Amino acid sequence: MLRLEGSWVAMPTPFTEDDRIDFQGYHTLIERQIRYGTSQLFILGSAAEVTLLTLEEKKTIVREIIAMTKGRIPVFFSAASLTTQESVNFARYCQEQGADGVIFTIPPYVLINQHAAFTHLDTCMGSVDLPCGIYNNPSRLGVQIMPETIQRLSDAHSNFVVDKEAMGSVEQLVQVQRLCEGKVKIMCCDYPKYSIVLPTLAVGGTGTANIGGNIIPEEAARYSRPWTSMEIIEECRQEYFNWFPLLQALYTFSNPVVVKAALRILGLSGGHLRKPYEEYTGQKLAELETLMGEMGVIDKYGVRS
User: 81, 107, 256, 304: which sits with the fewest CB atoms below 10 Å from its CB?
Assistant: First the structure.
């Protein structure tokens, strides 16, 4: 059932107004993703306010989401933690619960070299039999996983299947694709400001791991298809260019502030932020709502009571 292509939507964590996890809200958002053709879901990533969740909350999310999605849509969970052993422990928990795959990162703040980065990820991938991926996001984590390190990991682990890239370097994309020869599928993140969507697909990447699909899931699925024909290339470009102003607006602030505001505008679950995040208000919120209205997003996706 695993689909290493298309639109992988990185979902926010829906909270109630009193900061409890809103599992009914999760169900509503997941059903919407399945309806509109999303290939796969990514849970507990940076868009999910994951650093503001307790370990027990994260484990509960894993159990509940697997119960909602098993056999219906594949789900990868982030196993990123502050230490190698904590990452291993959480990945093994995801495997025990029946997850479809896990994603690892470099732990934040440690600023390790490439040898240590390889050792960390090598240990993590070797600890489970699940399909594994990495999230290469030096803007949040402080360390770039170099293409040569990714190649070493690919050579060492047959279960290393996807590289989620989040940096504005086309050279990085080219080198990963060249060195790994397609064994590791490249799926770009939205960061930085959706600048590498087309380059990723052009060098042979297979899709996007995005937040835009939380707001425009059907359109994200169309512009995230791998480029297997000239017809798809032209359709992808047109869709991407058309929606680029909204995608830019969703990155006015770092995840998940604006995407949660957009969910509120649509009347969907998931709009409440945990502290220390502050709600998106004022003129910027009004501009976002105007843009969503002008682009037809509210008419198509808004929930009417």
Answer: 304
